[in-house]
Each structure stands twice: as structure tokens, then as C-alpha cells.
TrEMBL record:
<keyword id="KW-0520">NAD</keyword>
<dbReference type="GO" id="GO:0090524">
    <property type="term" value="F:cytochrome-b5 reductase activity, acting on NADH"/>
</dbReference>
<feature type="binding site">
    <location>
        <position position="102"/>
    </location>
    <ligand>
        <name>FAD</name>
    </ligand>
</feature>
<dbReference type="InterPro" id="IPR017938">
    <property type="entry name" value="Riboflavin_synthase-like_b-brl"/>
</dbReference>
<protein>
    <recommendedName>
        <fullName>NADH-cytochrome b5 reductase</fullName>
        <ecNumber>1.6.2.2</ecNumber>
    </recommendedName>
</protein>
<dbReference type="InterPro" id="IPR017927">
    <property type="entry name" value="FAD-bd_FR_type"/>
</dbReference>
<keyword id="KW-0274">FAD</keyword>
<dbReference type="GO" id="GO:0005739">
    <property type="term" value="C:mitochondrion"/>
</dbReference>
<feature type="binding site">
    <location>
        <position position="151"/>
    </location>
    <ligand>
        <name>FAD</name>
    </ligand>
</feature>
<dbReference type="InterPro" id="IPR001709">
    <property type="entry name" value="Flavoprot_Pyr_Nucl_cyt_Rdtase"/>
</dbReference>
<dbReference type="InterPro" id="IPR039261">
    <property type="entry name" value="FNR_nucleotide-bd"/>
</dbReference>
<dbReference type="InterPro" id="IPR001834">
    <property type="entry name" value="CBR-like"/>
</dbReference>
<keyword id="KW-0560">Oxidoreductase</keyword>
<feature type="binding site">
    <location>
        <position position="84"/>
    </location>
    <ligand>
        <name>FAD</name>
    </ligand>
</feature>
<feature type="binding site">
    <location>
        <position position="85"/>
    </location>
    <ligand>
        <name>FAD</name>
    </ligand>
</feature>
<dbReference type="InterPro" id="IPR001433">
    <property type="entry name" value="OxRdtase_FAD/NAD-bd"/>
</dbReference>
<dbReference type="Pfam" id="PF00175">
    <property type="entry name" value="NAD_binding_1"/>
</dbReference>
Amino acid sequence: MSKANPIDLQMVGIFFFFSFSALDPEKWLEFKLQETARVSHNTQLFRFSFDPAAKLGLDIASCILTRRPIAEESEGRRKYVIRPYTPISDPDSKGYFDLLIKVYSEWEDEPASASLKPGDVVEVKGPIEKLRYSPNMKKKIGMIAGGTGITPMLQVIKAILKNPDDNTQVSLLYANISPDDILLKRELDRLSVSYPNFKVFYTVDKPSSNWIGGAGYISKDMIAKGLPGPAEDSLILVCGPPGMMKHISGDKAKDRSQGELTGLLKEVGYTEQMVYKF
């Protein structure tokens, strides 16, 4: 048998590297639920598995679409509920990805997140690009998140902190109902202790007797003290429930474009170019 041309082998390797992604932006692909873990009283982590030699193929920052059948229509076609989610696992991880999901009202017409069990299959399409992040694109990035709105923030935070050549300063204001509702607090605290370019501030609507963070809705004062001020080299990211979005920045437009900037961020002096709404 003749020896293979080394250049041919190199080209095969390059092709294999670029093509071996578990996601397809045009097709719904099946992913099996491997295991679940409780994160808070109403939130669970869901780990889905795929080929252990493949990467998910997720860009920073982007999300995926998931769908599950919930009924069969009279014409015999399936009716699906479709939801966008931002994986919180490292995009470079092989063979699995993690979603953080509330255990109620996420899948329509059923308590369904609770009904998902290891071995069940969910269809996934993506990635769906959101913010196109690149290292050092801004000197400072401020983040305002509420509840599960922490997921795209964590994706960006981890991408910045694991890159030694990315010098971006990151600050996060994270709002929740109570201290027990703060998701991934141990991980966020670990990152803030380990990396000097990341700081986090928490505020809750219903503080406990021993709570030492902020209390109440995010305010102008919290924004002024905790986030970079309005400037061309700063960017503010916002993600949370509709009420919080209206209070902070205004929601996206009906066509899902960024829409008009309103709320506290406009009052403080930020422009639409300085804010990105997930």
C-alpha cells in the first residue's frame, strides 16, 4: 500500500476540524437528555448529550432553539412549542451542553420541564446569533440580568475570563426575587474572587434577615455605582423578564430588532449604540 500524501492528510484534518459541529442552523436535530440537577427551588440544570468527539458549534454570544411536540393537530401535523435558550456550558465542551430552565411554564400547556427525564429527546436548531462578541471589542462591559436572564451573561463572562488576552472589564448587576432565587451564585462568586476584571452585585426584592446585598429593584444609583458610565468604549447588556426590561431599557421591537432605548439606561445617559438587549 502506498503512503498517503501528508498534504492530503493535513487537508482532511482541516476539513474534519471545521465540519464536526453537533448543531445545524437549518435542521432540527435530536439531542438526548442525559441527566438533571436542581439549581434552586424552581430551576434545574438539564444536560443533553451528543457525539463525544464533537463540539456543539456555538458562537459567543448566541442561543439555540428547542422544540417538543405538545399535541397532534386535526390535519395530522404535530404542534410544537419552541423556546430559545442560551447554553451555560463551555462552547468548547465536547459531547454535551447544559441548559438552565425553570421547572414551570417553560414548555407550554404542561409542567413539562419537570416531566423531562433522562433518555427523553428534544429537537434543537442553531446557533442563532445574538451579540457578535469579539475579544477587547469594548474596554468595559456592564451587564444587567434578572432571573434566567443570567444565561447569556454567563456565556460572555466565561468567554472573556478564560481568554488571557482579553482585558475587558466586566461588571454585573443581578436582580432576583429573593436570595434563594439567585441562580449560579456560587459560580459567580468564585469567578469574581478568581478574576480581578469581573465584579458582581446582587439585589433582591425580598431580602432575608441576614442578606447583605442590595434590596429592591435596580435603581439609577445601582447603575451609577455598579456599571461603567456612558462612553463609546463601554457596552451595557440587558436580559430579563418583560417587566425588568421595560424598567431598565425597554423591550425589543416587534420584529425582534433592538428597538428604542427607554427606561433607566436612557435616563442615566446611555445611547442605543451603548446598549444591547438579549
